[in-house]
Write a structure and sequence with these properties.
With 306 residues, this protein is α+β, with helices and mostly antiparallel strands. It has eleven helices and twelve strands.
């Protein structure tokens, strides 16, 4: 029987999400017949390494956010020569750094939002670009720290003074329209989902993980050209960063002036959520793949640099 260690929890702002993902993965892998060792990750890296001794056949990485999604734990597993799910060090680090990922996407000719890194004192002093615009950390996931500044909004200085994500923020043009996402498994895009946040104007942390926080329409009811473009761009982004396993690309789709509209790639997620409200499992299910089958596929495609 294949022995799989599941890493979950972690020390990022997304710890609670990872705990839920991990619990679902543990149950799914056991249902699929694997011998599963749950490893709840905390600040003690030595304890994690000890829990991985003797080496499992594979690690299912269910961590989200910094140190779990940014290449850090991937480097440890490469060093230990233990195959693990999802992307390797380089792709993980690039995807988590939104500025670096955007540079790669631009070089690959993919559509991205206009913007730049802005020092926090500059943001506090004045609008760095015309409103409306989006302020976000350059290295967090799950929409942690994301704010939208609109015309007449007086929160800019307050947001800057309360900023806790480093000396600068990524400021990008606000793209009106609709929220789309595309899951990729290997070299195949699964589907395009439209996300309708129920309580808020964008797909923030609460919309992603609260019960009934959002409604998903899959396949998305968008222009066929836009649908095909989203599928193609998701696979191209996956390849441009050198990702492996499963990823998910998030888009804004501006059809406010008519279709087929403008599609903009926001980011790629190398550790897509695996909670009851998550998008990748929902798309896989639409393709006829159960959650245990999805998790099994991830384990079967585990790899390491060693």
């Amino acid at each position: 029987m294949t022995r799989v260690a599941v890493l979950y929890g972690g020390i990022s702002a997304e710890r609670e999400v990872s705990l839920v993902s991990g619990e679902k993965v543990i149950a799914a892998l056991r249902a699929a017949g694997f011998d599963v060792d749950p490893i709840e990750v905390g600040h003690d890296l030595a304890a994690v390494i000890a829990a991985l001794t003797p080496k499992p056949d594979a690690v299912f990485n269910a961590l989200h956010g910094r140190f779990g999604e940014d290449g850090a734990i991937q480097g440890v597993l490469d060093w230990l020569e233990i195959p693990y799910t999802h992307s390797g060090v380089r792709a993980s680090a690039l995807a988590m750094d939104k500025v670096a990922a955007k540079a790669v996407f631009m070089s690959a000719g993919l559509p991205v939002a206009r913007g730049r890194m802005v020092p926090i004192p500059e943001l506090e002093a004045a609008d760095p670009i015309p409103v409306p615009y989006v302020v976000k950390p350059s290295n967090e996931g799950s929409s942690v720290g994301v704010e939208i500044i609109r015309g007449g909004d007086n929160r800019r200085a307050e947001i800057a003074r309360a900023w806790k994500y480093g000396p600068s923020a990524l400021v990008e043009e606000y793209i009106p329209g609709r929220e789309l996402t595309v899951g990729v498994m290997g070299d195949r895009a699964l589907a395009v989902t439209e996300i309708l946040a129920q309580a808020n104007s964008f797909y923030d942390y609460e919309s992603k993980y609260a019960d009934q926080g959002s409604r998903h329409i899959v396949p998305a009811a968008v222009h066929p050209e836009a649908y095909a473009e989203a599928m193609d761009v998701a696979v191209a982004a996956h390849r441009a960063l050198g990702c492996r396993g499963a990823t998910r690309c998030d888009f804004r789709y501006d059809d406010t002036a008519g279709e087929p509209g403008r599609l903009v790639l926001l980011e790629i997620n190398t550790q897509p959520g695996l909670t009851p409200t998550s998008l990748l499992p929902e798309q896989a299910a639409k393709m006829g793949m159960s959650f245990p089958q999805l998790c099994t596929w991830m384990v079967e495609n585990a790899a390491c640099r060693g």
